[in-house]
Specification:
Layout (H helix, E strand, L loop, with lengths): L3 H13 L22 E6 L5 E4 L5 E2 L4 H13 L20 H5 L10 H14 L3 H13 L8 H9 L2 H12 L7 H12 L2 E2 L1 H8 L7 E2 L4 E2 L3 H14 L5 H7 L4 E3 L4 E6 L3 E6 L10 H14 L5
Antiparallel strand pairs: 1-2, 1-9, 3-4, 5-6, 7-8, 8-9
Helix pairs in contact: 1-12, 2-4, 2-10, 4-7, 4-8, 5-9, 6-8, 7-8, 10-11
């Protein structure tokens, strides 16, 4: 199916609606974003791709990167990774300390901050040059050598990252962090600072629509079973406290970030990214959610 006409129509429709969302102002550098930015890009498994609006402009992907860091760690550790992480929706804030006490330092899932910090610790232990190796992994997935970290965003996050510092040290007290917390956090903030365009993100996530195979290189990134499990986690845990509602309205696995990006995957078909910086009360792109709900309804394609 060609999605060009549907995407163009919905882009114009959603662009006109009043955006009642707000920028993620608790990260100082993100306050500098032009709130009128709006871009969409779809990359399909049959190489029928299409973009509209600001799809080629880079933005801070923030928590979307947690899917990618998990994928690399999963590739390295295999199923033993779940000894250190859970796979359940959290039911509490993405930066909550409460569950870590109850669960004895095992984060409820890899997409809350505590879980992503444990993933950063794993990569720090397993990669010879963690920052460089992770970036190489992303560039290989996307087919773009122009992807990089943002030192401005990373520095901005570090300046206000008190809750993440507390999370990391608390997990360390349960022996679920192996490296020095300062090193783990430094890498974690770098991971979250990645800047990518909607086009680059859709191309990067296409392996999760392709049974774990990178379509740009034909290399097996994850097994088919691992790819299925990553998609399942995105379906149940990818949108903070709005994951259930996203599944209900959109019907696709996906992941959001407070930079205003959302990536959604239809296994066997496509990966689609929407970027609009203003967030709803749950911390997800206001226009992004609206667009994807209408898109799956109009295309009549979802996993449900």
């Amino acid at each position: 199916m060609s999605f060009d006409t549907i995407i163009q129509r919905l882009f114009l429709e959603i662009k006109k609606i009043e955006d009642t969302g707000k920028i993620a102002s608790y990260i100082p550098e993100l306050q500098n974003i032009d709130t009128n930015k709006f871009g969409i890009y779809i990359a399909s498994t049959n190489n029928s791709n299409y973009g509209v609006g600001d799809y080629a402009e880079k933005f801070s992907i923030q928590s979307i990167s947690k899917v990618l860091s998990l994928s690399l760690a999963y590739n390295i550790l295999g199923e033993t990774i779940w000894n250190r992480l859970g796979v359940e929706p959290s039911g509490t804030s993405y930066n909550s300390l409460i569950q870590l006490e109850t669960d004895k330092g095992i984060p409820r899932n890899p997409f809350i901050n505590a879980g992503a910090i444990v993933i950063a610790d794993i990569l720090l232990s397993k990669l010879k040059y963690p920052k460089e190796d992770f970036l190489s992994f992303i560039r290989n997935l996307s087919g773009s050598e122009k992807i990089n970290y943002s030192s401005k965003i990373a520095t901005s996050e570090k300046s206000v990252g008190y809750r993440n510092i507390a999370l990391c040290n608390f997990i360390k007290s349960f022996n679920n962090i192996q490296n020095a917390p300062s090193e783990v956090l430094d890498f974690y903030f770098d991971i979250c600072s990645l800047e990518m365009s909607a086009k680059e993100l859709s191309n990067t996530f296409l392996f999760l629509a392709n049974k774990g195979i990178n379509p740009h290189t034909n290399n097996q990134v994850l097994t088919q079973s691992q790819s299925k499990r990553i998609n399942a986690l995105m379906q149940t845990c990818g949108f903070y406290d709005e994951s259930g509602e996203f599944a209900f309205k959109v019907g696709l696995p996906g992941k959001s970030g407070v930079g205003g990006g959302i990536v959604a995957v239809h296994p066997g078909h496509y990966a689609i990214t929407v970027w609009s910086p203003k967030l709803n009360k749950k911390g997800n792109s206001f226009k992004g959610i609206q667009f994807l709900e209408k898109f799956t309804t109009a295309s009549k394609l979802s996993i449900f």
